[in-house]
Protein: C2H2-type domain-containing protein
Amino acid sequence: MPHECDACGESFTTLSRLRLHDCPAEEPAESNPLSSFDSFLDSISDALDADMERRNQEREKRGLEAASGTLKTNLEAAAKGDADAAFQMLAHYERELQEYHQTENDDTYRGIFWAFYEPAAEALDEIATREGWPFLTDLIDAYSRESDDEPFVSPVIENAVGRHVVRTRRRDGVGAVPAEALAYLGSFWDSNKDTSWEESFTYGWGIGYPEHSVEEQLQDAVTEELFWVRGVLPHAFYADQHAAADLMDALLSDERIDYEDRYLLASILSEVDRDSAPKVPRYWDMRDELNDRFEFDETVRSQLRNTIESEGFHRQLGEEWTFADMDL
Structure:
């Protein structure tokens, strides 16, 4: 009785021959070299991410070990709502960051900075939510930015101010946002400290403010700090897409700006269109708290498409282009 291989269909006179035959159907499928390479890149990326996370944890551990007991004690009290302790915490945070920065002990400086960043920001936000804007005003007055003399604790204060601006605008409208908050955030447009510079992106939530023109400052700053303006623009769209679209129109037709740089500004529309979660203020899930989602009004989408086509940016895209195609 012949025995047939279910896989390849070949017949054999004995069961032993069937079991021992070299079945072509059992050979592994030819691997896709591109797929294998993608997997290889993914494995490298995962390894790098894991290594970076490990390094960050080690850095913050060293920062916690190096920080004074007074800083830790005041942070603990501030986290429980003690406003006076919050000021003491910031004073020690500033002093210790300054000390390690001046001695060029960068590893310890970064360790302390990042170890206390999130808990300090959370503590300030909790107190500001309870005490209101006057508490944040006192912080700004105590640690104002003057030219290049920028306090080391600025990002933590900007974080709390940014949260206040977003909540206030969403709850009470742009007119209720304190003008001082916008002036403070806008003062970091040329900061040489990356974290301060990034935390100030929430300045965009002041677009349309009657007594402080966010639009004018962005148009003034764009030729010197293009990437700051680019970071602020998504926040402006989340705040008021109609006002932001008018501003974008003005920027994309501004011949003071190089053509390639104008396209760079326009490319943020892909980020906005896919409703990417804002990365600042750090450690705050704006969407979760405010149940905030973004969707383009079709009149705004049409307005922006017309501007992009009139400026010729669509020539770099496909025939049936969308904002998603502008992603860099």
User: Anything to note?
Assistant: The chain has one domain: 75-326. The chain has 16 helices and two strands.
